[in-house]
Amino acid sequence: MNMKRTCALLATFLVAVTCLAPSLARSDARAASRELPSGSLTPAERGRFAHAYVLKWGPYVERVFKVPVGVWAKRMVSTFVHADSSNFRNALERTTFEGASAELSGAGSKLSDQQVIDTMARAKLVPALSSPDLVVQALGSAASDLVYTPVTPCRILDTRLADGAIAGNSSRDFNAVVGSAGNFSSQGGSTTDCGMVATGQAAVVINVTAVSPTTAGYATVYPFGTARPLAASVNYGLGAIVNNTVVTKLPSPLTSKDFSIYTFAASHFVADIVGFYAPPQATALQCTRQLGNFVNVPANTYGFGVSVTCPAGYTATSLGIEAAANVVMADSSINSSGGTVFTYNLGSTAQSTRGWAQCCRVPGR
């Protein structure tokens, strides 16, 4: 896929959408996503998919999460560019925003629309059930069951190079997932995306350094758009250079910024990203056809067993035999590691035969 061309096409399709009012009808979105092409997506098709997705869910995001459609659409460009083609198609067919988001991130099989509806209904009808202790967490949710992915340490901000020191007793907002124009140079960071092109990040791990604060104090790193917690991420002394590794949750859905830094004293700050947490992503089933050893099935014999074993870590899903025309399958016994095929030699001479097993595993993320 030509990434520059895809990004340009997406931008073209999204410009019109970001100017639309929140009252955009769902019927328009359904019409836009009708007759989805099969197979891999061309840049133009991916642009149409992005257009349909924003038409369908932009008004919902603006109404429920108070995020302007234009802001949300622009932050979603990276997700639209890198989303798996099948996941993208499935996302457009979903009837809940949470289900569509799960499909885009590759966790669609873990969160059905009915699960979303049931959870919302319980929370509305019985407020007590909204307690984290009582609601069963959905596998692959953006708040639990997360997978950590390390990235090569990469600078995402340096106030010495952009915008200057953060004033005492104040906060400044930053990006961690994707910066302006797909890089972090506007924050004094890398001119690359720092490897943060995966979708569905729920939290990031950053190494935060306070540089030459004007007095002793502390800094707090916390999710953008939330109340600042009474906690210290980095404690520093006058003129010190001190750092700490911090895990910070990201807004869901993504907004204009990702996290904020509060500082007690005026100070410069430097931050490097080292990894992120995201829901597990669906992966294709990995299968192999395992062949057994050749054996001679005696003439006119019923129930002769031919065995085959799967490689370690694989599970047998089906069995069969390779044999001459006179030998047929009579029965089979399958288990997690392989199985046995029972044969019937209808001929008057022994026949060379071997079994086979279709062996599969879920490779994980």
Structure keywords:
365 residues, alpha+beta, 4-stranded antiparallel beta sheet, 25% helix
What topology emerges from the helices and strands here?
Layout (H helix, E strand, L loop, with lengths): L2 H16 L7 H7 L10 H23 L3 H7 L1 H6 L2 H9 L3 H9 L7 H13 L21 E12 L11 E5 L28 E9 L5 E7 L10 E3 L4 E9 L9 E5 L4 E11 L7 E6 L3 E3 L4 E8 L5 E8 L4 E9 L2 E8 L5 E11 L4
Antiparallel strand pairs: 1-8, 2-7, 3-6, 3-8, 4-5, 4-7, 9-15, 10-15, 11-14, 12-15, 13-14
Helix pairs in contact: 1-3, 1-4, 2-3, 3-4, 3-6, 6-7
Outline:
With 365 residues, the chain is α+β, with helices and mostly antiparallel strands.
Give the number of DSSP strands. Answer: 15
Shape: elongated
Largest sheet: 4 strands, antiparallel
> Helix fraction?
10-25%
Compressed to H and E, one letter per element, the order equals HHHHHHHHEEEEEEEEEEEEEEE
Domains counted in the coordinates: how many? 3
Report low-confidence residues grouped into runs of 5 or more: 15-34, 125-139
Q: Mean pLDDT score, rounded?
A: 80
Provide the structure class. Answer: alpha+beta
- Alpha-carbon distance between the termini? 22 Å
User: How much strand content do the residues show?
Assistant: 25-35%
What's the CATH class label of the largest domain?
Answer: Mainly Beta
